[in-house]
Design goal:
Distance between the termini: 21 Å
Largest sheet: none
Structural class: mainly alpha
Shape: elongated
Radius of gyration: 20 Å
Oligomer: single chain
Strand content: under 5%
Order of helices and strands: HHHHHHHHHHHH
Number of strands: 0
């Protein structure tokens, strides 16, 4: 393993850390905005479950990402360009307070650098990238449907309860739903970096091609980096997710987190890299709409978030293609 490969692995782990930092809001926004946990306790709770997710999920997402680009065009410079483009976009959207998708930034960055290297779109695996693109719509829609249905069911179940009883019970239940969501978050998102590192190791001859299953050390360091990033939080985005889209109470937080967790668990089992941001946003909107008054959802804020979603893949692709070109020139790659 050369020094250059080691540097790129470190950069991949930096992306993973930033992913956790950037997406911490997705894991803790509801449980913080409902005041069930303090921000400091919430990020610790989320980080723990981000890490232990490695023991619960098969690396189906990592395998798909590792084979998402033709092997001949997975070079260190392509990986480097994809990672740096995604990192730049993540930091920009964090600074703007927009919950964009780290997953789509990485996929867009990987695609942009690979297409620039090959000079053709067919270098991308249509199935892997097609499913990723489809779930830009499917994951928030599914989260919204499950969140809406779950909130309606809770209303029926608890209609005879006093407000104090509802609040007390769902404050406790929200600890479990927050943990489940963080497991789903770690299980899907950490695998994306695992897939990128595995693709790099295969291209460098460190790991055999065949079945691109991540090595154990890759699995552990990726989950650890993501958990450490989550510990660092991301308060700008927490305010957008948990306080600006719709006002949540513990019962709504429980419904949103449970809906998001169900969506993430399903997507990870199918090997589909989805956006945790899209998923929890859809769930929060669905819960807000379940009150019967769609006016409870602040559609102006939701609209800004959707525009960030739309621009993420092309923006990160352009950034990555530019960085790949510079890296190729500096390294003297033909």
């Amino acid at each position: 393993m050369t020094t250059y490969i080691l540097i790129i692995i470190v950069i991949a782990l930096v992306f993973d850390y930033i992913n956790g930092f950037h997406d911490a809001a997705n894991s803790i926004a509801t449980v913080v905005s409902t005041r069930v946990l303090s921000p400091r306790t919430a990020v610790l709770w989320a980080a723990i479950f981000n890490f232990i997710a490695f023991a619960l999920f098969e690396p189906t997402v990592a395998r798909n990402i590792a084979k998402g680009v033709e092997a001949a065009f997975i070079t260190p410079n392509v990986i480097l360009g994809g990672l740096l483009g995604a990192i730049v976009w993540n930091l920009l959207t964090w600074w703007w307070g927009l919950p964009s998708s780290s997953s789509h930034a990485l996929m867009g960055g990987f695609a942009g650098a690979a297409v620039k290297s090959a000079g053709r779109l067919s270098v991308l695996d249509a199935t892997v990238f097609g499913k990723t693109a489809a779930f830009i719509l499917v994951s928030p829609l599914l989260g919204a449907i499950i969140g809406f249905a779950l909130m309606r069911a809770i209303h029926l179940l608890a209609r005879s309860w006093t407000p104090g009883k509802v609040s007390s019970r769902f404050r406790r239940l929200q600890l479990a739903s927050a943990a489940a969501y963080s497991l789903g978050h770690g299980g899907n998102d950490a695998q994306k970096t695992m897939g990128i590192i595995t693709a790099l190791l295969i291209s460098a001859g460190v790991q055999q091609g065949g079945d691109p299953k991540p090595m154990l050390w890759v699995v552990l360091v990726c989950h650890a980096a993501m958990g450490l990033g989550t510990l660092s939080g991301g308060w700008r985005i927490v305010k957008t997710m948990g306080m600006k889209i719709t006002k949540l109470k513990p019962v709504g937080g429980f419904a949103a987190e449970t809906a998001g967790a169900a969506t993430l668990f399903s997507a990870t089992a199918l090997g589909i890299p989805v956006s945790t941001t899209h998923t929890i946003t859809g769930a929060i909107v669905g819960v807000g709409g379940a009150s019967g008054r769609l006016s409870t959802v602040r559609w102006g804020v939701a609209g800004r978030i959707v525009w960030a979603w739309i621009f993420t893949i092309p923006a990160s692709a352009i950034l990555s293609a530019t960085i790949y070109t510079i890296a190729r020139f500096i390294s003297g790659e033909p």
